[in-house]
Amino acid sequence: MIRNILICTTQVPFTTGGAESHVEGLRRALLSTGYNAEVVALPFKWYPPAEIMRSALAWRLLDLSEANGKPVDLVIGMKFPAYLVAHEKKVLWIIHQHRAAYNLWGTPFDDLSTYTDGAQVREWIQHCDKRFIPEARKVFANSQTVAERLRSYNGINSEPLYHPPPRADRLRCGEQGDYIFYPSRLEPQKRQELLIAAMQFVRTPVKVVFAGGSRDPKHYESMVKSLGVGDRVCLRGFVDDAEMIDLYADALGVCYLPFDEDYGYVTLEGMLSSKPIIVARDGGGATEFIEHERDGFIANAEPRAIAECLDKLYTDRARARRMGQHGQEKLRAMNLSWDHVVQSLIDGAG
Fold first, then answer.
1. What number does CATH give the domain 4-162+336-348?
2. What is the CA radius of gyration of the chain?
3. Are 255 and 198 in contact (CB under 8 A)?
4. Taking CA atoms, which of 13, 30, 114, 304 is between 20 and 30 Å from 121?
């Protein structure tokens, strides 16, 4: 009988985002279902590349068969290299692999290829995944996008297992304001620059509000100033949950433009707030739930194309409202639930 469960993940110190919310959501769901569940995390450093190998080795050397006399009945692996850990009863729910060795390799968001030993370490990472992921009794992916990466890069079949976003039960639809909302950490891979640049080309009085911290806020402030869009672009920085929910509720629409995202909480939270969503065609998991011109717009990752979508929402607000309602109804009909997630993971252990 399964009683004691360890959730294995990695943690970049002083960084909190979607992956951390995902892991915490699973822990709470397991506890609420009656399991004894805890999170085991090791700090992860990816530079220089040799550190990646050291981290993977650390996970392989761990003995998680028991702890303080209590047997560990099940291990759930979430992120590279934590999911490489050895255990006789292991199920994987992969948030993502080490993306620089896969879908980000050779893109502007990849730093692994810039090292002289980068290609060698990339090959080593892929070798580890191909060898150790199949040790699991069952492999789940957190989206169809992640499942397709596993299949195409590693020849490993997995089952997409969707879960509700962290604020799912608190999101609501409020007033239809005059701004497009983009909530996320401001960083290159999230591509907030595309939306800022798009504001040069809009023909309506639409505005944009960004909410999220940044390691380099001056870069975004400088871009807004240099493009002369400061009267229509608001950089709110970090906001708490209550303000975040209000900003979702009163937006005209929600924009989310990451490159090849794994899952994309912003898309789901925008839909649950009954807002039309603007996503990029190359957005990966961020686009999985969006049907073009029914739930929002799927646009080329180019400022003029994005500006056109902004203007369409502002010009036809009734249509914007209908698209938001359609997306909300569609997502609610999917019945994403933590109960289903927990049952799937437990069943996967056999």
1. 3.40.50.2000
2. 21
3. no
4. 13
Distance CA 275, CA 296 (A): 8
With beta carbons less than 8 A apart as the criterion, state whether 279 and 267 touch.
Answer: yes
Locate 211 and state its tokens: 């909410």
Residue 101 sits at φ, ψ, to 5 deg, of -90, 0
- Strands of 236-286 (E only): list them: 253-256, 277-280
| Residue type (1 letter), 213 | G
Across the beta sheet with 90-96, what order do the strands follow?
36-43, 4-11, 74-79, 90-96, 138-141, 159-160
* The overall pTM is greater than 0.90: yes
How confident is residue 117, by pLDDT bands cut at 50, 70 and 90?
Answer: very high
pLDDT digits (tens, 9 = 90+) for 81-111: 999 999 999 999 999 999 999 999 999 999 9
Q: Do domains 4-162+336-348 and 179-333 have the same CATH topology?
A: yes
96 forms bridges with which residues in the sheet?
79
Q: How many CB atoms sit inside 10 A of residue 165's CB? A: 23
CA–CA–CA angle 100, 84, 145 (5° rounding): 50
Distance, CA of 335 to CA of 288 (rounded, Å):
16
pLDDT in tens, 232-285: 999 999 999 999 999 999 999 999 999 999 999 999 999 999 999 999 999 999
d(CA 289, CA 170): 20
Could you confirm whether domain 179-333 is CATH 3.90.180.10?
A: no
Phi, then psi, of 278 in degrees rounded to 5:
-105, 120
List the domain boundaries for the chain: 4-162+336-348, 179-333
DSSP 39-57: EEEEE---SSTHHHHHHHH
Residue 112: HSE in the Cβ half-sphere, 13 Å Cα cutoff: 25
